[in-house]
Amino acid sequence: xxxxxxxxxxxxxxxxxxxxxxxxxxxxxxxxxxxxxxxxxxxxxxxxxxxxxxxxxxxxxxxxxxxxxxxxxxxxxxxxxxxxxxxxxxxxxxxxxxxxxxxxxxxxxxxxxxxxxxxxxxxxxxxxxxxxxxxxxxxxxxxxxxxxxxxxxxxxxxxxxxxxxxxxxxxxxxxxxxxxxxxxxxxxxxxxxxxxxxxxxxxxxxxxxxxxxxxxxxxxxxxxxxxxxxxxxxxxxxxxxxxxxxxxxxxxxxxxxxxxxxxxxxxxxxxxxxxxxxxxxxxxxxxxxxxxxxxxxxxxxxxxxxxxxxxxxxxxxxxxxxxxxxxxxxxxxxxxxxxxxx
Length: 342
Hints:
This protein is mostly beta strands. 8% of the residues lie in helices and 54% in strands. A hairpin with a 3-residue loop joins strand 12 (237-244) and strand 13.
């Protein structure tokens, strides 16, 4: 169940970022990360909201993707820090291995509600799903995957039907292939999708990864984005560098200290628009399903996250953020997240 559960949660979080309300109260925390959360999101999606979707860890024998560069630092510095007023998720598996998943949240305020539900079924190397969201969108997926001659491949047909302002339909094909030390992934627009997306990564030696990613806009007939990456990760130390459009250079460092402590640093090292971004965070792992994290940004915005488990099937997360320059009179945020899985 864990891989299916994470896939369902990623589906909701992807579409939640794209469609949830984005009107913030005055003085609210609106800082943005510079990077889309997944291969399927257009580059402009990163301008709307801070990335909160983390790539799932590679499965046994799988290669990391372009989006795993800097993933440990992003997990420490982002997960939990963008919780709205409330959020609940629930994933259930029936006796026939049919997965039912729902989520709802108030973001960024109590009454700005967004949610959805999905049905997911996997049979051997095939899977299909159907999801509905409160923004009047219906999403369907049909996927297949396999392994041959020490190679892995997969294909995923994704379609969206919108009914908010008339009926709209769009579809795209996501496909990938990997054979160590090379991995390639493409998102091909089939109907009413403007972007052709793709990346290629290589692992020349253990723990190191080199990659290139591009986004080509078919409507504008030009590249929206191209980027190079370099990453190192041995699970205790992680270093990541990304150069986007040969104009913006970003870097991150993650380091474990002993068995419980870790810290992360993320910054744009060079920006063509002279935008300064910096974040530093620490975490303590109690090794019983409980994490305590703290983070501070270049504008003194400070946040804390407490993450724990209630039994085996309930994950809980609490978030508190305030203005470090004016802790009493500045903007505040409090958020609660509950995740049920059974």
